[in-house]
Amino acid sequence: MEKFALITGSSSGIGLEIAKILAAKGYNIILTARRKERLQKISKAIISDYNVNCDLISCDLSEKNAPNQIYDFCVKNNYNVEILVNNAGYAIPSTFIETSMEDEEKFLRVLGISVIALTKLFLPSMIEKKKGNIMIISSVAAFAPPSSIQSLYGPIKTFMNRFSDSINSNYNKHGITSTAVCPGFTYTEFHSSSGVQKEMDRVPGFLKKTAERVAKEAVSDTLKGKSISIPTKTYKVFVIILKVAPIFIFSLLVKVLAPGRYDKNK
Ligand SMILES: NC(=O)c1ccc[n+]([C@@H]2O[C@H](COP(=O)([O-])OP(=O)(O)OC[C@H]3O[C@@H](n4cnc5c(N)ncnc54)[C@H](OP(=O)(O)O)[C@@H]3O)[C@@H](O)[C@H]2O)c1
């Protein structure tokens, strides 16, 4: 049976780079995101560049039924999903009291509930075959104190890391691994689509990594079955500092290195 990798949020950024790397390794690819025309162009390019099958399904993960639509599409086409990459995401550039409950619900659905739903749907057939890799694109924000804007972003990423741990502790024995990938600042469309491009522009260059580099480490760590992946040495060190340093040191550091995220309420 041919092996497939399903990548959410593969119309740009880290997800697109992961799709290309997995195609180069011989995986057939299923792309999903909202922008259908982009997915169609990417699909054509992947088929011609890597000589693999590449199909797509366009849907909005903020809609409750989207994970089921994706799963039914794979079952109908007999796509054997061996790698599930939960990558789609964005952030809301407002303080907590400025957002509506509907905004927050949609956000949690894309970054959290859809991840759980897709994992729940694809896991049984992976267990049956005793083989499956789940990748969850989390963030170094999972380890940092929550910021004054994007208030649920850090918390949902922390939750996703714990969810990934839970999949490992329950299903490693069935041949399943789950890798929580925690990138730092990465050049993608994330900051412009999340309304924080100005803040991103102020971050010094040495802290901003390319999506190709992040995706390469993420795929390598996932295929090795690592439970956590922190792409680049810079962010490996950053996470150690976050774990041991008192919060006021972190606050001083971000004031200098990433101004804008921690001062909107002051
Ligand atoms: N860039 C960073 O600095 C950074 C750092 C740490 C973690 N991350 C995480 O990395 C992941 C990928 O982000 P990126 O940086 O590669 O940003 P990106 O270039 O903006 O890509 C985000 C992807 O998610 C898709 N998406 C967004 N909302 C969606 C929805 N409602 N339904 C379905 N798909 C949706 C987008 O596609 P459509 O618009 O076509 O739907 C796009 O393909 C996210 O989970 C993000 O939290 C990013």
- Low-confidence parts: none
- The end-to-end distance, rounded to whole angstroms, is 57 Å
Give the strand tally: 9
Unique bound compounds: NADP nicotinamide-adenine-dinucleotide phosphate
Strand content: 15-25%
* Mean pLDDT across residues: 94
- CATH class category label: Alpha Beta
User: What sequence of helices (H) and strands (E) makes up the elements?
Assistant: EHEHEHEHEHEEHHEHEHH
CATH topology: Rossmann fold
- The radius of gyration over CA amounts to 18 Å
Largest sheet: 7 strands, parallel
**CATH superfamily descriptor:** NAD(P)-binding Rossmann-like Domain
Shape: globular
Q: Widest sheet: strand order?
A: 3-2-1-4-5-6-9
CATH architecture verdict: 3-Layer(aba) Sandwich
Structural class: alpha/beta
In the residues, how many domains can be counted? 1
Descriptive notes:
The chain is an alpha/beta fold. It has a single domain (3-257), classed as NAD(P)-binding Rossmann-like Domain (Rossmann fold). The chain has ten helices and nine strands. Strands 3-2-1-4-5-6-9 form a seven-stranded parallel sheet, sandwiched between helices. It has a two-stranded parallel ribbon with strand order 7-8. Strand 2 (28-33), helix 2 and strand 3 (54-58) form a beta-alpha-beta unit. The chain is globular, with a radius of gyration of 18 Å. The model has no long low-confidence stretch (mean pLDDT 94). NADP nicotinamide-adenine-dinucleotide phosphate binds at residues 9-15, 33-35, 60-62, 87-90, 110, 137, 139, 183, 185-186, 188-190, 193. Residues 9-15, 33-35, 60-62, 87-90, 110, 137, 139, 183, 185-186, 188-190, 193 line the site of NADP nicotinamide-adenine-dinucleotide phosphate.
